[in-house]
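Now produce a polypeptide, keeping tokens residue-aligned:
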Amino acid sequence: MELRSRSRALKVTLSKNPTIDGDDTQPVDESLDDLEQPKPYAKLVGVRNGISNIELYDENFVCGRGGPDSPVNYSFSALVKDRGLYNYISKIQFSLTRDFNENVTRITDLSRNGTLINHEELEKNVPRELHNGDLISIGIPRLIVFVYEDMTDCELPEELTRKYNVTSHALGKGGYGKVLLGYRKRDKMNVAVKLVNTQFSIRCSRAVAKSRDIKNEVDVMKKLNHPNVVKIYDWITIRKCSYMVIEYVGGGEFFSKVVDPRYNRLGVGEVLGKYYAFQLIDAITYLHSLGVCHRDIKPENILCTSKQERCLLKLTDFGMAKNNTSRMKTKCGTPSYNAPEIVENEGNEYTPKVDVWSLGCVLFITFSGYPPFSEEYDDMSMNDQVLKGRLIFHSQWRRITVETQDIIKRMLTVDPHKRPTAQQLLDDKWMQCAESRRARHDVLVVTENERNNNGGSNRTMKVRENEEIAVKRRRIK
């Protein structure tokens, strides 16, 4: 979804709220060396522990649990210990058919519980063409078993594919490229692969600047190691394309959470809001302690680790970040989240406190469900609203404590000299609360699980899979 269209969901008016043996040696029969060995046309890459990689040669290939009356080419026998899941797989799950004339592979669902391609359920007994990188799931989107890899169609560099399986499933898209779901081959861990095409005319200064931004983003991310900041694992540049392999965060954008209909566009409330606030304030405090200023903090650049109400948040997209905050003058960021000193910028220097302002805007939305500044306030331009620090508190703020309202106002102080630093916010009495302690505890638990080879994460994923399987079984019955 484009930023502009998503932003409309938060727009406001004055009258209402913004919207993973001994035998002898035989002589060589040299005539065999002249025989051309068959080559697979494709491969099914197993992305779950216990599921093998399968090279495809034959015209027809069938997968499933199999049985005396149901022969298959590949059986999911490695999953037999997981009775709930194994019994969920049909004897004949799906078939693959290769048309060697057209060089096309088609998949057909033959199961009871369904087969999905890129999270979309197939119509039973209706063939569908497979494309390089397609995800194959069983029953539910989360239960991904294979990535289809077409051996005749690989546009990605060997430097990347040697270490990662890159799927065709898009996680997101920006102005200069897209983000695809991938798997690290050595441990099948999920990753996100950001593809950026930098092949522009050398006369296009904007493109040259963007190439510089990519290197800057990588340099910044390499020095960061915080549980609320997305990690970078690899950076590969081949010809005119860059591939950033970063941490996969599967819960979607924070934007979607703050505008979730369950909250009636009235904000997530005081308790949950402070749970999120601690994580974000701790993240920018960490950044600023390393001399890094993000400069584009907004709900779309904050990712959620899960769809659950209480989850970890991860700050992402460091394309605008500054590694040396001693000299920041560039006018950048997103207008409705920009601090006054950026809005009125005429080459004057500003400080990392611009992140505090932007986070103040994010938290304002989090607690209330609408943005503090909007083009739809027709009595004043948005720039003027920002420069004056004009805030309108609608009725939902009545359920938010005065202390929280005061913190938001302090973060949105026009004069940067009077605006608190991130460290001051973190040390404030407002953050010494039960929800902050709970957030800190949850962050530590997840960090420890990640340190232990993602054991905790895998267990959590298994629980969620079984829950979704149970739901679908009930629906089918």
